Amino acid sequence: MPVRPLSPVLLLVLLGTCAAWAAPPEGAPLLAPPVPSAPVDLERVEALLASLSLEDRVGQVMMVGFRGTRLDEDVEALVRGRRVGGVCLFKHNIASARQVARLNDGLRRLLADHIPPFVALDQEGGNVMRVSDQVVRLPGNMALGATRSAELAYAAGRAQGEDLRRLGFNMNLAPVLDVNLNPQNPVIGIRSYGDSVSLVSEMGRAFARGQQKAGLVTVAKHFPGHGSTSTDSHEALPVMRETREEVLAQMEPFRAVLQEGLDGLMTAHVAIPHLTGDEVPATLSPQVLEGLLRQGLGFDGLVLTDELEMEAIVQRYGVGRAAVLALKAGADMVLVPWRYEKKIEVYEALLAAVHSGELSAGRLEQAVRRILVAKLRRGLFQAPALLEERLASPPPPDNGEVAHLIARASVTLLRNQAGTLPLARTARIAVITAEASLGEALQARAPHVTVLSVPAYPSASRRAALRRQARKAALAADVVVVGLINARQQELVTAAAATGRPVAVVSMGLPYLAEQVEEARAVLAIYSYQPAATDAAAAALVGDIGTPGRLPVNLRELHFGHGLELTGHKQASATPPPAPRPPSVAQEAAH
User: Fold this and answer.
1) Is 306 noted as a catalytic residue in this protein?
2) Is CB count within 10 Å lower at the N or C end of the chain?
3) What CATH number is given for 411-542 in this structure?
4) HEC-encoded secondary structure of 51-90
5) Catalytic: 234?
């Protein structure tokens, strides 16, 4: 499916705003920078900066990762030895909430006599979830987009921020502000709130405000936008072929969130030739970072690069060289999470660049100053409560409820032929799913439910056997429910429907795929396979709740805002659908 261009009406509306985004003429006033969330003692910032050696300053602009779930000599040599400014944890670092809380405390102790580090992770919700226990498990951004509720987005950001702070994190690399204009985008998809500029702007602003209210350093991503691309920057350099005006329009969510006093942005490794005149990735482009972001948007917060070890960067520049170019372009921190030798390469390349004069001491000082301001603003220099006290204190019960409120408000009924839904509780229901929680949630609500568990990514040799099993399960049932995560489950829908039994599909992934299961009589989109989402799907299937969600993207035949009301359900949804309102200019023009 081709990328859907933004309409001329939307472009005309946004260009009035975007005209100020390019670097202004010399002497022209800049847009006002975001107001800090808390007053920062600038004299203390300067005193801290003056106390740092050149080597310390180079360490501060590095955010690193490491392997393993505990500290060892290698980690200590990296974090304490290089006095790094931040550490980013990934799934391979996290075994449990208690374990990672202890790890985070240990990381802070390594730099107890120095500048405290950012302790960061990617906790977006949905399919990007690094910590899974003792935290709210949010359904994800596209589910939030389907709710149309800025209030729920704010509650999601605040609940997640509170839970992560309790575990010792002080930074989250979220929310995602990319507008998913390309249905075939290989890297954004349901990580986006939708394909409407105004919807992404509204949800992103509310989520960021909530997360920062919880005291978490919030780094939105991926500036200037990764949502229209067809290439994953982990594998190659994406090139945005849209016009300058279309590219600027996609940046509107970032401009909107910056107005909330956003702490930081993460850059995207995307080339924008119609904006910059070349194919230099935005991460390394002075025109994008210093010109567009700093001067045009007036943003004086923290700028962190995406991983410099991605192929989009490595293939053309190498990691060390890229780190120097990123700092020169206007970035403040470089993310180097994987290979140990690449971290050393970056450290040495930055030192050499300052010694040679290629990277000015003033530019390095500016970057470190922004890092120190962010750390002071969010209280990183204040000692946290004792670890055991924090672990003994359970998360607020309301935090967990936020996920269920979002999930129930996001359930979107795309099709319901011949009143297939709600399902009769007395019916024999066969569930075919790669996500066990969907079957479990239905078994809790109906007495005659059988579950066929299938792999999410079956091998070619297993597919024929799975089709036979799906047919057998359908023949023994009155109705079949198929959980759809990816295209691998489509043939199971076909196999079940071929028996003549009615099939209801629960789409737990990209909604674009849901439209392709033509044999299904009913289709629910929930945009997530997190437990709260599958529980909401089960509740809707048997009529316990309604279907208030509305499509946050355009499909081939179903358009933005589509959603059917489920008639015959037994009680109102926990979160009723929003009252009808006229579409915003962006929605009206783009959709």
Assistant:
1) yes
2) N
3) 3.40.50.1700
4) CCCHHHHHHHCEEECCCCCCCCHHHHHHHCCCCCCEEEEC
5) yes
